[in-house]
From TrEMBL:
Occurrences of domain ATPase AAA-type core (ranges): 27-79
Keyword Transport: yes
Entries under PANTHER family matching the protein: CONSERVED COMPONENT OF ABC TRANSPORTER FOR NATURAL AMINO ACIDS-RELATED, LIPOPOLYSACCHARIDE EXPORT SYSTEM ATP-BINDING PROTEIN LPTB
Protein name (database record): AAA family ATPase
Any Pfam family matching the protein: AAA_21
Keywords for this protein: ATP-binding, Nucleotide-binding, Transport
Length: 128
């Protein structure tokens, strides 16, 4: 934490997180992928930056941590902007205010979920 957050108050806030406190004596390789991803995201969210680029924050993460990551992003969306690339479109749809599909070398603004099927990103029957 010291490397990323030199501010002692931010370090303490991170340590007080109920999902982090129990792991403070562990090494990174002792954490599950979800625990590690959650901790990494917390570190990033406490940086003094206005935007974060998150590459596949939901990839390979167990559902419990997907929900926790979604919650974190919702809490911080008033103070930070996020650019998220991920194939887990369900999570992305739940937390996004704007969607852009990158396909065939083009960026396409997605105004409704049906357009994801129209552009071949998801099968039409996925919309149920």
């Amino acid at each position: 934490m010291d490397l990323y957050l030199p501010d002692a108050e931010k370090q303490e806030a991170l340590k007080q997180d109920e999902r982090v406190g129990q792991h403070l004596t562990k090494c990174a390789d002792e954490l599950s992928k979800g625990e590690l991803r959650y901790f990494e995201l917390l570190l990033l969210l406490h940086l003094d930056v206005k935007f974060l680029l998150l590459d596949e924050p939901f990839s390979g993460i167990e559902p419990l941590y997907v929900e926790r990551i979604e919650e974190l992003l919702q809490v911080h969306r008033s103070t930070k902007g996020f650019i998220i690339t991920d194939h887990d479109y369900h999570s992305v749809l739940r937390i996004s205010s704007s969607l852009i599909l990158l396909a065939d070398g083009c960026c396409r603004r997605i105004r409704h979920i049906g357009e994801l099927a129209q552009w071949g990103y998801i099968p039409a029957n996925a919309l149920g």
